[in-house]
Amino acid sequence: MRRVAILLIALSAAASCARTAPSLDRPLVLGLISGPTNLDPGIGLDETSQRIDQLVFSSLLTIGPDLRIVPDLATRFEADGPQAYIAAIPAGVRFHNGREMTSDDVAYTFRRFLDPAFVSGKKGAFSDLAAVDIVDRYTIRFQLKRPSTAFPASLTNLGIVPAGTGSSAARAPIGSGPYRVVDVDPDDHVTLAAFADYYRGAPRNSGVVIKVIPDDTMRGLELRKGDVDLVVNDLPPDLVHGLSTVSHLRITTGAGTDYAYMGLNLRDPILADRRVRQAIGYAIDRAAIITYLRRDFARETSGIIPDMSWAYRDDLFRFTYDPDRAKALLDEAGYRDPDGDGPLPRLTLSFKTSTAEQYRLQAAVLQEQLRRVGIALDVRSYEFATLFADIVRGNFQLYTLVFSAGASADPDILRRIFHSTQVPPSGFNRGHYSNPDVDHLLDLATAAATVDERRRYYGEAQSLIAIDAPVISLYARSNYVVAQADLTGISLSPLGDLAFLAGVSRTR
After folding, report:
1. 333 pLDDT more than 70
2. What is the pTM of this model?
3. For the segment 378-425, what is each residue's pLDDT rounded down to a tens digit?
4. Nearest residue to 260 via CA among 380, 399, 438
5. CA distance 43 to 20
6. CA distance linking residue 418 with residue 462, whole number of Å
7. Within 10 A of 310 (CB to CB), how many other CB atoms are there?
């Protein structure tokens, strides 16, 4: 594979993000809303950590544009009987420290999830894994506890780490991806340099400086000034609309899989009542949110499985905007209006969201829509790290987040979010939802022998989940990149990931 010659930059200058004269050797500057919490790909769960991991690490498998599993590192991946898979990697893949990747590294990466002492919210994806055996220098065998056609999805976009990787990987990870980490300040920047020995060929730029800019207006301003080269999805739609008239900027858009939702704590005695959850669903005017808040950079959705997925079911129950139905359900649940048209609410709920302006504005809209049916929201805004920590600990009644960067590309995400065994720290069932029928269907889907069987079981599970409303769907986000017009090679997959950055270059 042809390698592109790269002239490395002075990294200390790159980290400062100072303006320089236009140059092909100047790193790309990417504006992000928040910094990473943990760059170990086996641990980091926040959106920023996982987006950066895509640039720093290589995986055995990845998700293609049609949302089907395709090889990344793997030169061979196949079933070895009903309860095992064989994977092989190519010779000559180098880590950023120059050492060759072997099956020892692959085995170490996945054996960590079998170690009781290893704490990770991603462990739930490997609940069916029994052992990882080394076949030869470049071949690995995954032994499962039971048949699972869903297991390959667990391997997608999960970066391979060097054997012996420890806690230092949170801030100084070593991968084999197109970029190597040079400098990390989670509150300010992450500096990545192009990796000339990347096995698919060096990037078409000298590096990426990820500039943490929590304020929406400042991210837009730095794009206008040219101090930031591009922003991927991390701008409010109103700002994107305003920047569309700036001559030196270009906007690229595409359908996305990012799923915006309201999470509910089903251990809470109020929200344990399905009638209350459904009342919240009927009280939300999604069309208004999409049109006025999202500037149509979104579409309505019935659940986390995107409509372009092979496992999507198009006849699911979905909430319409029906305030009268919401009030009737609250009456049935015993939360009657105490004063008719007066100001007193039927009930009050705590609602946690991000300090980012677009999410605070969205929270205000949701607060007003729920007020109209008698539900008062006590809105509390937090920096993302604090918000996310509270959610993982179950310290909430209601919250809003986005599942992003391909989380929903494979329908096994339904198991990770809605199976009763997948509560944190092992999985993403943060609301502690439990439905034995859903558990059974998801178990059947995991063990199904054919795609058609998986589709049927996942479809039936989606139907039950939609009616139970353990989470409330808001919308599926569209993807967009706002970039300087002198950048070429920008392309968007439905996942809205950052992998395309390795192919971006400047025309001047």
Report:
1. yes
2. 0.77
3. 999 998 889 999 999 999 999 999 887 555 578 889 998 999 999 988
4. 399
5. 36
6. 10
7. 14
